[in-house]
Amino acid sequence: MQPKPLGAFFQSNDALAHLQEHASRLIRLQRAYEEFAPAHLAQSSWIANLKAGVIVIHAVNGAVATKLNQLTPRFIDEFLNRGVDLTGIEVRLQVTPLHTAAPQYAPRALSAGARQALARLEDTLPAGSALRRIVAGFKSSGNG
Prior knowledge:
The structure is a single chain. Helix content is 54%, strand content 13%. It is α+β, with helices and mostly antiparallel strands. It folds into two domains: 88 residues, GMP Synthetase, Chain A, domain 3 (2-Layer Sandwich); 30 residues, no CATH class. Strand 1 and strand 2 form a beta hairpin. Helix 5 packs antiparallel against helix 6. The chain is elongated. The N and C termini lie far apart (68 Å).
């Protein structure tokens, strides 16, 4: 059996053909948006959908969303001038979580001088105090 091109697969089913057409429309809208939107805003937002004549733009934070809301009348004109049939623009906040790993620190041994300083500090603190227990823990663990 001969493999079919991916485009032929999408055209073989009405639902898939509709999906491909919608995705192509969103790509064209995104490209147009990147042409006229200020660069710093275009980098922090994107065209998410076009539904019932309303373009949905997702913004990465509240400041970007606020500025986009201020610019929607201008954006509507820009899209209309490019032949896009729309009734409005909706800006939504779409915060993406940052997946930054916590820095890994290797414990370092305390020097003899540091241990002595902690011992002197421990002796000046009231017996049974929380700070005295913390100092004693640092001193006995040898890490700092």
